[in-house]
Amino acid sequence: MPPFPKNTQRELDHERLYQLHGDSRSMLLIALDMFLDEVLVDFSVLENAVRSQNREEIADMGHKLVPWLGMVGLTHLETQLRQLVALAKSNADSTAITHSWEVFKTELDHMIPLVEAERRRLN
Q1: Which residue range or ranges hold the HPt domain (predicted)?
Q2: Domain boundaries, the chain
Q3: Residues 84, 40: Cα–Cα separation, whole Å
Q4: Which of 34, 40, 43, 101 is the most buried (most CB within 10 A)?
Q5: 14-122: CATH architecture
Q6: pTM here?
């Protein structure tokens, strides 16, 4: 298993969730549901773009997905995904793009259970 970046967090950013959703449990639950049931699939599209080194699609999908990370409390992943987008836009080496994706994806995979647990807690 690859090492995690030093700034990796192991919990959802509840302060950010409160800033975005306030006391509205139903709004947060809608965001969590949409992320887990609809948006998460788009990360597979992004992964395919990384594998094929389709820089335009990496930039477009990454830009589309960044806000969703904050909306569900994965604030620390926003920065990582922005870095991937920047690499794609700057025409960086394909190895750098792939590595950036692998670090991001590993952390995302470890955080999904926390998002699922938050959804269960709110239900």
Answers
A1: 32-111
A2: 14-122
A3: 17
A4: 101
A5: Up-down Bundle (1.20)
A6: 0.88
Cβ-count burial of 123 within 10 angstroms (0-12 exposed, 13-18 middle, 19+ buried)? exposed
Residue 120: strand, helix, or coil? helix
Long-range own/partner contacts, residues 33-40 (CB < 8 A, 24 or more apart):
33/119, 35/68, 35/71, 35/72, 35/115, 36/112, 36/115, 36/116, 36/119, 39/65, 39/68, 40/112
CB neighbour list of residue 44: distance below 8 Å, 6 or more residues apart: none
**37-75 pLDDT tens trace:** 999 999 999 999 999 999 999 999 999 999 999 999 999
User: Is the Cβ–Cβ distance between 74 and 111 less than 8 Å?
Assistant: yes
